[in-house]
């Protein structure tokens, strides 16, 4: 059995009367820490910023979660 334990850090921008709501596209995943069975602790950081129109850009790229799950049987998350 292979497993991955992981933790995420996100930006915190208020929308819909909630802080750090996942339904607000301006909130981005900025850090990912994880450990695979028999592996070492690993981390990835994703920069964020604003474009010339003031929209938030950056964060984790599309597909980052599928990459984390590759070869994984059990996923353990923390909050």
Comma- or semicolon-separated keywords:
single chain, 79 residues, mainly beta, four-stranded mixed sheet, two-stranded antiparallel sheet, 6 strands, 8% helix, elongated
User: How far is the first residue's CA from the last residue's CA?
Assistant: 23 Å
Arithmetic mean pLDDT: 86
Helix and strand content put the structural class at mainly beta
- The beta-strand count equals 6
- Major sheet, described briefly? 4 strands, mixed
Strand content: 35-45%
Series of H and E elements: EEEEEHE
- What share of the residues lie within helices? under 10%
Q: What's the alpha carbon Rg, rounded to whole Å?
A: 14 Å
Output the strand order for the largest sheet.
3-2-1-6
Oligomerization: single chain
Uncertain residue segments: none
- Globally, the shape reads elongated
How many DSSP helices? 1
How does this structure look, described?
With 79 residues, the protein is mainly β. Helix content is 8%, strand content 39%. It contains one helix and six strands; from the N terminus they run E-E-E-E-E-H-E. It has one helix spanning 64-69; strands at residues 3-10, 29-36, 41-45, 48-50, 56-58, 74-77. The strands form two sheets. A four-stranded mixed beta sheet has the order 3-2-1-6, with no helix packed on it. A two-stranded antiparallel ribbon has the order 4-5. Strand 4 and strand 5 form a beta hairpin. The mean pLDDT is 86.
């Amino acid at each position: 059995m292979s497993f991955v334990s992981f933790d995420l850090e996100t930006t915190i921008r208020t929308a819909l009367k909630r802080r750090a709501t996942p339904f607000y596209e301006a909130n981005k995943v900025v850090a990912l820490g994880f450990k695979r069975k028999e592996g070492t602790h690993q981390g990835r950081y994703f920069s964020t910023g604003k474009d010339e129109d003031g929209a938030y850009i950056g964060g984790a790229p599309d597909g980052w979660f599928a990459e984390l799950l590759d070869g994984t049987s059990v996923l353990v998350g923390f909050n």
